[in-house]
């Protein structure tokens, strides 16, 4: 993001431009930024889009008054609105991206978007599809996305709302399985440090395929809404079952559901959600599995819930949380 200094400089430049007081070099800079906007960005966050719309509305009102007292001849009003919106946002990285895309539309480099531990991202692809990226995840988009194909590579977890296109299937590849759709919504979970990968369908029809490495056999399964395919990385086999997709994908809204999960599995999810390091000691007892829900409460509260109902003990250190399962019980917590 740009600094406060970047923002103030951009505002000052915009004011001079509107007043007709820019130097030739400054005027060329503003108009170059505007020209660069003609190149479509591959994606934009909801926050950026909402900010642009808000700034445009405010500026439109201001320009309505400005036109009565000043002559604005350098650019059409709509162009001025777009320039002003971007300038007021003053996001240095975004401006660099726009200029780069405008200058080199044929770049062979893929685009990589990362949601680090402790954060989630909402992405808008240029085909109209929306991707919600969970913490600890990475999405790679090929440079020809939306042209001859719609193909992405996912590590981690994401929920996809795919824009319908009967001529260009939307393909999500992971290290475990490949998902192919024409237009639907579904959740894919494929973290590298988890023993399984899964695809759950919220709407439409999804095809999930994989060539098994152990025997070379190929499988392809068609999934309908409310169905989930779970693929085991160890034996390269899969199962299909009913699932509550709304609950499974509730992480988009800051919720986390744990469904009959071990303390080790819970710890891995908490690490991603809260961006911290957790070390579990003690045996992973089969009887110690828990089903509960949390939202965005502090990690201390979550640990207290587990301590009270599951019998774990924990220690919070400066850079690590230690959890002991030695005294765990098989009581199922009902955390809200």
TrEMBL record:
It holds the Pfam family FecR_C. The chain crosses the membrane at residues 79-98. InterPro entries: FecR, FecR_C, Ferrdict_sens_TM. This is FecR family protein. The keyword Membrane applies. Residues 115-206 form the FecR protein domain. Keywords: Membrane, Transmembrane, Transmembrane helix. One of its GO terms (molecular function) is sigma factor antagonist activity. It comes from Pontibacter mucosus. PANTHER family: PERIPLASMIC SIGNAL SENSOR AND SIGMA FACTOR ACTIVATOR FECR-RELATED, PROTEIN FECR. Residues 257-323 form the Protein FecR C-terminal domain. The keyword Nuclease does not apply.
């Amino acid at each position: 993001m740009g600094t406060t200094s970047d923002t103030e400089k951009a505002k000052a430049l915009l004011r001079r431009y509107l007043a007709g007081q820019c130097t030739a070099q400054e005027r060329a800079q503003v108009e170059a930024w505007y020209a660069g906007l003609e190149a479509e960005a591959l994606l934009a966050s909801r926050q950026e889009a909402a900010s642009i719309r808000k700034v445009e509305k405010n500026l439109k009102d201001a320009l309505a008054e400005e036109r009565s007292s000043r002559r604005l001849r350098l650019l059409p009003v709509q162009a001025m609105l777009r320039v002003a919106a971007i300038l007021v946002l003053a996001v240095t990285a975004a401006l660099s991206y726009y200029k780069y895309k405008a200058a080199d539309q044929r770049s062979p480099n893929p685009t990589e978007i990362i949601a680090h531990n402790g954060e989630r991202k909402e992405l808008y692809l240029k085909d109209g599809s929306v991707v919600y990226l969970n913490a600890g995840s990475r999405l790679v988009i090929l440079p020809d996305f939306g042209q001859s194909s719609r193909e992405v590579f996912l590590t981690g977890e994401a929920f996809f709302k795919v824009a319908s296109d009967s001529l260009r299937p939307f393909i999500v590849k992971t290290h475990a399985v490949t998902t192919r759709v024409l237009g639907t919504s579904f959740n894919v979970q494929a973290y590298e440090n988890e023993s399984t990968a899964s695809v759950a369908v919220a709407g439409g029809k999804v095809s999930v395929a994989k060539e098994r490495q152990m025997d070379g056999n190929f499988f392809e399964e068609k999934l309908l809404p409310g169905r989930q395919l779970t693929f085991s990385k160890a034996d390269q086999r899969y199962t299909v079952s009913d699932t509550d997709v709304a609950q499974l994908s509730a992480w988009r809204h800051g919720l986390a559901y744990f469904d009959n999960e071990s303390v080790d599995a819970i710890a891995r999810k908490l690490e991603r959600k809260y961006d911290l390091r957790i070390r579990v000691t003690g045996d992973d007892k089969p009887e110690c599995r828990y089903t509960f829900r949390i939202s965005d409460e502090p990690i201390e509260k979550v640990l207290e819930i587990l301590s009270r109902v599951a019998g774990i003990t924990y220690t919070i250190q400066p850079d690590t949380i230690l959890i002991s399962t030695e005294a765990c019980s098989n009581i199922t917590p009902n955390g809200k």
